Amino acid sequence: MIVARLRFNSGFAPHFVTMNLMRYLIALLALAGLVVSVLALRVHYSTGTEPCSINEKWDCGVVNHSPFAEVDHFPVAILGIAGYFVLGGLGLARQRFLLFLVTLVGLAIALRLTFIEEYVLQVWCVYCVISQAIIALLTALSLGWLTVEYLALKRANRGA
Prior knowledge:
Oligomer: single chain
Low-confidence stretches: 1-13
Number of strands: 2
Shape: elongated
Number of domains: 1
């Protein structure tokens, strides 16, 4: 609605508003991913029954206490916390290309962990699935943001 109103004022305003909203949306999704990673880390160090222990196919405790939840005694959830923190910073700093590259790395790691949940553990973690959705959405948004900026620069160079 804001974008539609600004369209009549100048050609620059809608693009600027949309791109500004994109960086804050990416930062908000990164914050959501950070929160989910913190919850997964809490499960990793917990010894009690977890609220995400739904049934034999959905149990965060099984996933987060498995040998795949650590790399050299380092919880994977901490990698998620750091990764989402970096993604939020890159989004706010408008580092579109670097953001896209880091989201691709994050997506590859998340897909590998999803493969382990599906075929090795045969148990799903609700937090992991939410994180998978967030990183997939961040990857798509960062690619879209990068593409829009690339096309805008290409169009500006053609007109100059």
